[in-house]
Structures are given as C-alpha cells and as structure tokens.
Amino acid sequence: MEKQLETEEGQTLKNPLDSLWGTVVSGFILTAILWVVARAIVSHAIGSGA
Amino acid sequence: MTPQTDWILRWFHIMAGIMWIGLLYFFNFVNVAAVKQATAAGEAGPISKYVVPRALLFFRWGAVVTWIFGAALLGGYPAPNGMNGLAAAFGLQGTMAPIGIGAWLGTIMLINVWTFIWQNQKKILGIVPATDDEKAKARRVAFLASRANTMMSIPMLFFMATGPTSMSQFIYH
User: Fold this and answer.
1) Which chain B residues touch A42 with a CB distance below 8 Å?
2) What is the predicted ipTM?
C-alpha cells in the first residue's frame, strides 16, 4: 500500500491529484510558475539581442 | 516551410490534440466518477468492456499523431540564430522557450500515456495477466499518471496557445 505522509501534528497529507479540483488548481499553479520561467528566458534573450 | 505546409500541419496537430486531450478529460472529468458509481451499483462491466478499450485506442494513438505533427511543425519554424525550430524549442532558446516548455510538457505526457497509463491499463482490462494485487497497484499508478497528465495539460495548452504568436509580445515581454 501507498505510504501515508503525515505532518508533525499527525495529520495525513493528501495528494492533490486524488481530487479532480486539486488537479485543476495544481495545473493553474504550475502554469503560473512556468510562465515566470518562460518570461525570464524571453526577456533575457531580447535583452541580449538573440 | 511554405504557408500551406504550416497550416496543414497545424490543422492535423490540433485535430489529433483534441482527440487526445478530449479523451484525457473524458477519463478524468467523466469516466472515473462514472465507474466508481457503476461499480457500487454492480454495473461497471460494460464500461470496462465496451467503452474504455475504444477510448484508450484513440487516446494513445491520438497522442502519437499529435506529437508527430507538432514536431514537424516546429521543425519548419524559423528559430533565432538560424537554428532548427525543433532544436531551438526543446533547447528553450530565447523566444522559442514558451513553445518549448509546451513541447516538453507534451512529450512528458506522451511518455506517460505509453508507459504508466497504457501498460497499467492492460493489466486492469485483462489484456495481460495480472493478480488482484497487481491490478490494484496498476489501477493506482494509471490513475495518478492520468491525473498528472490532466494537471500538465493546463500549462501545456497555455504554452501551445501563446507560444510563437503575435500575442507573445504581450504575454512574455
């Protein structure tokens, strides 16, 4: 069986992918993170004239 | 690449992509809950026998066709410094980085389909022999891989839609 992760207070940590809406929210968070990465790369390239 | 080649490749890339991601969303938004409810009612058999195998056939081959047309499209794209568009995208080179991130996500999702999802679904559906324990484990792995693909599809579609287009200067500059 899958190992359950717990906090120091003994609460079970849930995998967001077990919930459909947790999955969707995780997708939007991942989009925001990757957008920051993409913008940094594009800005650097334009700044250096590439 | 001629404009005609560009739009034909783009057209087939989008059609196959709708087949792939449409079925991914069918599995995650509809089928998981439907099978759970049908199993509780003792009626899940027909879904597993008649619906899932057909859906998986178009799902996994839709993924391959989408990737091939996407790669061909990128290969003919004019990239900075005279690079090949496909290499520039996967190398996250300059203005090709946004579409490159989308291409990487799509590639990881394709690998997920053929390794974690399809290999485990074959055990679940009885296409390859498996014990009850192996089926239970396969069900969990296939479920999480499918959910991971649903999560990655959200940024993948963002970067596909906003990559090297006239909009990109407002989104990334």
Assistant:
1) 94-95, 97-98, 168, 172-173
2) 0.90
